[in-house]
Amino acid sequence: MSRTTATIDPAELKAAGTARQTDSSAPNADRPRRRFNWGKVFAWAVMIALLIITVFPFYWMLRTSLTSNSALYANDMSLLPTDFDLGGFARVFGLQSPEEAIAQGGSGASIDFWRYLLNSVVVATAITVCQVFFSAMAAYAFSRLHWRGRDFVFSLFLLSLMVPLIYTLLPNFLLIRDLGLIDTLLGIMLPSLFMTPFAIFFLRQFFMNVPTEIEEAALIDGAGKIRIFFRLIIPMTVGPITTVAILTYMNAWNDYLWPLMVSYTDDSRVLTVALGNFTEQTPQTGPDWAGLMAATLVAALPMLLLFLFFARRIVNSIGFSGIK
Amino acid sequence: MSVPKTIHPLPVSGPRQKDDTKIALLFILPASIGLVIFYFWPLVRGVWLSFTSWDILTPARFVGLANYQQMLQDPVFWNAVRVTLLYVVINIGVQIVVALVLAVLMQRLSRSVILRSVVLAPYMVSNVVAALVFLWILDFQLGIGNQLLASMGLDRIGFFTNEAWVITTIALVNVWRHMGYTALLLFAGLQAIPDTVYEAARVDGASELRMFFSITLPLLRPILGLVLIISVIGSFQVFDTVAVTTNGGPVDSSRVLQLYIYDNAFGQFNFGYASALSVALLVILLVVTFLQYRVTRAGQTDLN
């Protein structure tokens, strides 16, 4: 670390705080230094406040999902779960009888949560596998193959970045309808299966950086271009490919508007759409907040787990992906 | 990095210069299918549909500019434009400031990966999840937010039910989800500013605040401009949060453009008019992006 002041951890800050206290009792205290430390304290206060704002809703999801509805309706402000109860989770996974569920403030309607979960997994997995693979193929053609018209075709792909996704949704819906794929999982995934311009650009950047010497050695050994793609380029860029795959999976998992357009029944309903329906099926007594927060938590969990495992990779790739 | 950017028309010599056209066509085939069918074709079809009247059941009928004339006289459309702009201004205004503060704090206080991960966590959950959590936290009777207000002796606020509040609330919910992501983009930009500049300033006795305004902000400008453009484009397309929490209400006060488009298409099966609205949104986006690009001079850097 070349810069000394930029990395100060809380322990150092504490030490600086005590030092300041002794300083102030001394007659010739170092004034600019003191002001500087106050600034640090203030900066950390702002930072901690922002972190609390960031984390609190997650905690509140958990806290609410572990509390019974009757306790929630008793207007309590306790930070810990009161009247600890797993009923919310039981309702989400259909482990309660309708009578029991209604008694605990649920709607009693059978929600096929496992079905939605499975649908989400199928859609997000298929999109990720196909989209990343096809994008990688295109990225390979745009970075390592030599052919007439390459730059022109690439600029066409560049152009597609300018089309806002939202604009394509209506015509794409009509196309899916023409194909008879409304209310099917294939209909939900089809438009995203082939590529995204982002994935192509992102991977192309890394493919270009693979040294040509290695490729030439493989060519001399008699390997073809296809073989080089599978045996050389892909293994050498596993890192960036993983990053793209994670981001793709996340986007597919979190998508709402498109699946909302295409799916009409439980056959093709994914988690986000099922959750979004919540406000429309509120029981007479008032919303089943405990059940809902349990459901949102379960819906968010796969992404949070994925994030837990790949946080460093995702966090470090964000700058590149945005500025590029 | 010795891969040539452009290809020589004639192969020179050696194994690398071989013409790969056949393999290349095979490799770009799937992506090209996606590009043509799901990007370019919708672009054309959307513009065509905006000149028709179509309810899906009967064949589309060409009506010329009728949809656009209807749009110009449609008070709900103009209200949607106003509401969307209000949303974008609040959302982007707060988000950029908070993200900038967060990015600078991360750069000056701690570059720990754990800290950056925590900040990014909200971005990992869907808009739907974020919307539902805040629907609960800000519930009029039971939400912890309003209970806190009440316990301090303040009036409860109908965050999602009061016309005056609803857009602000939705804008801030989306700030919560996106501020960490935006902060990381800016953080990456800050890394590009050489340390030596700060060291020189410190030797000259500049304060942290002075350094922020005289060094960080001006040198970050191109990246700030790009981040602004990306965020604004995303912001204009707001739909999920509104659809889940208020569905446009109360009385159209949160009926953003995208929701109005969706209502027209799937509520009233007015696909021609919905397409015209989409074209309007596209045009607004193009104009706003172009203006931002010019104003922020995002393409030019002041470094070096």
UniProtKB/TrEMBL annotation, chain A:
InterPro entries from the UniProt entry: MetI-like, MetI-like_sf
Pfam families: BPD_transp_1
CDD domains: TM_PBP2
Subcellular locations according to the entry: Cell membrane
Residues that span the membrane, as ranges: 41-62, 116-140, 152-176, 188-207, 228-250, 289-311
Keywords recorded for this protein, A-Z: Cell membrane, Membrane, Transmembrane, Transmembrane helix, Transport
SUPFAM superfamilies on file: MetI-like
Topology of this chain in the membrane: Multi-pass membrane protein
Domain ABC transmembrane type-1: from-to ranges: 117-310
Region (Disordered) residue spans: 1-31
One of the protein's GO biological processes: transmembrane transport
Signal peptide span: none
GO annotations of cellular component type: plasma membrane
Protein family: Belongs to the binding-protein-dependent transport system permease family.
Name of the protein this chain belongs to: Sugar ABC transporter permease
Naturally occurring in which organism (per UniProt): Nesterenkonia cremea
Classification of source organism: Bacteria, Bacillati, Actinomycetota, Actinomycetes, Micrococcales
From TrEMBL, chain B:
Keyword annotations of the record: Cell membrane, Membrane, Transmembrane, Transmembrane helix, Transport
PROSITE patterns on file: ABC_TM1
GO cellular component, one term: plasma membrane
Subcellular location: Cell membrane
Transmembrane recorded as keyword: yes
The keyword Transmembrane helix is annotated on this UniProt entry: yes
Transmembrane region(s): 23-41, 85-106, 118-137, 157-176, 219-239, 271-291
Domain ABC transmembrane type-1: 81-292
One of the GO BP terms on file: transmembrane transport
Pfam families xrefs: BPD_transp_1 (PF00528)
Record-linked CDD domains: TM_PBP2
Broad class of the protein's primary localization: membrane
Membrane topology: Multi-pass membrane protein
InterPro entries: ABC_transporter_permease, MetI-like, MetI-like_sf
Family per record: Belongs to the binding-protein-dependent transport system permease family.
Name of the protein described by the UniProt record: Sugar ABC transporter permease
